[in-house]
Amino acid sequence: MRILLVGAGGVGSAIVPIAARRTFFETMVVADYDRSRAERAVAHVDAPRFVAYQVDASNAESVAGLARRHNATHVLNAVDPRFVLPIFNGAFAAGADYLDMAMSLSYPHPTEPYRKTGVKLGDEQFAVAGEWESAGQLALVCVGVEPGLSDIFARYAADELFSEI
Length: 165
Hints:
By secondary structure, the protein is of the alpha/beta class. Helix content is 41%, strand content 16%. The chain starts with a strand and ends with a helix.
C-alpha cells in the first residue's frame, strides 16, 4: 500500500506519527501546498518510507499527477472541506482508493434558497458512486471524528473488545 496524504496541517501532521508506528503500508507521501509544512511533518518521524512534496489541493490534476508519480494506491484527504472535490476527483483519475475526513460542501438553491433544497453535503460525491464501483475503486467519505471515526471505533469495540454491549 502506497498512501498519498494530502494536507500537513493539524490533522495531517497528527496522522504522520501515528502512521509511523504502523507497518501495513510501504510509503506515505505527505503533501501540502506549503512544502515546508510537509517536510516538518516528515522530519518528526525520521523514517525513509515518509517523503514530503508540494501539491495544489485545489487542482485535481495536481493531485492525480502526484498520486501517479508515486504509484499511490490510496489518497487520504486531510485538508479543508473546500478542497474535497479536487482531491476526490484526482484520486479517481489516478486509479487510487480514497478516504476523507469531510464531504463535498452543500450549496443553497440558486434562485429559491429558503424554499428549495440546493446541493446537500456529499451529493456530488455520492452522485459518482457507480463510476467508482465500476472502476473497482473505493471511496470512503466523511470518516472524520464525528460521526465517522467514532462509528469505526464502536464497531471495532463491538467486534474485538467486548462480548456484549
